[in-house]
Amino acid sequence: MSQLPTLEEIRRAPKVLLHDHLDGGLRPETIVDLARETGYDKLPTTDPGALRTWFQEASDSGSLERYLETFDHTVGVMQTRESLVRVAAECAEDLAADGVVYAEVRYAPEQHTSAGLSLEEVIEAVLEGFRIGSEGRGIRVGTLLTAMRHQARSMEIAELAVRYRDVGVAGFDIAGAEAGYPPTRHLDAFEYLQRENAHFTIHAGEAFGLPSIWQAIQWCGADRLGHGVRIIDDITVPADGEAKLGRLAAYVRDKRIPLEMCPTSNLQTGAAPSIAEHPIGLLRRLNFRVTVNTDNRLMSGTTVSEEFAKLSEAFGYSWDDMQWFTINAMKSAFLPFDERLALINGVIKPGFAQLKWHG
Known about the structure:
single chain; two-stranded antiparallel ribbon; metal-binding; hydrolase; TIM Barrel
């Protein structure tokens, strides 16, 4: 048996990231700086190392609601144009340093207006930051505009996603606590996006089960599922037989609906018991359109490379498996087909071929 790829080797592989929250990936040093500059005085500590530890420990509670509370501090320091430009630029730099060649990073514009910025000013600041951070680093970053499930601004955000789609906004998303806030509350926004031939993903099947996945796909028409781990509830694996797929799981697999899996985050929110028992193992074996993502790099203390390293250790994944996950992600990106193909054939396959050859 060949040796599994090391973390350092994995960092050199060309990777694709589809599910990453801008307000979940700040550098602790930046949070401290921005808090000082903007007068934000609610941080639990102003020591960057201690702050990093606080975020990760607060995120390990097993509760999605408690996990989401940590964002009060990151969002709290992201209320000015300057802070948004800096955070977006550093996000692109950090992803490029981890070997990411294409990323779709999401955020909710409505959460960054408390100091007087308009939604348009928020969007333009983030786009500027990504332009600055991506330059010369071999990474391309698109943004997903997120609407909050418990608010009533989804149509407004959807219209902005369409307005800015030719200058860096790749698509639309809804996020926030799933229980009590079904995606069907935002049906008008999803129908508008479909009429406009726009792309969107929906957080579903993480804290809530199969009904949220069914609604996201069959009522709302989602192109991708954010997380989607609970699709496992529609798969039965007898001790002595092959996996049996229920109607919904079979539909998701048949239609190649991408699943934006975030293993470490899923452990923190209680959506999976451990990496070794994460549904991604079975779903990969059954050839679902699975992708590997970070969700929130600060809260989970992770990178895409580290997610792959954990999966490789748990499931024995080789370079071929990692290439499979990466091509899945690139196929599922909200980019024109020819641009996806160019990255697959011109960057991803040659990059993995070189690593496998040297390995």
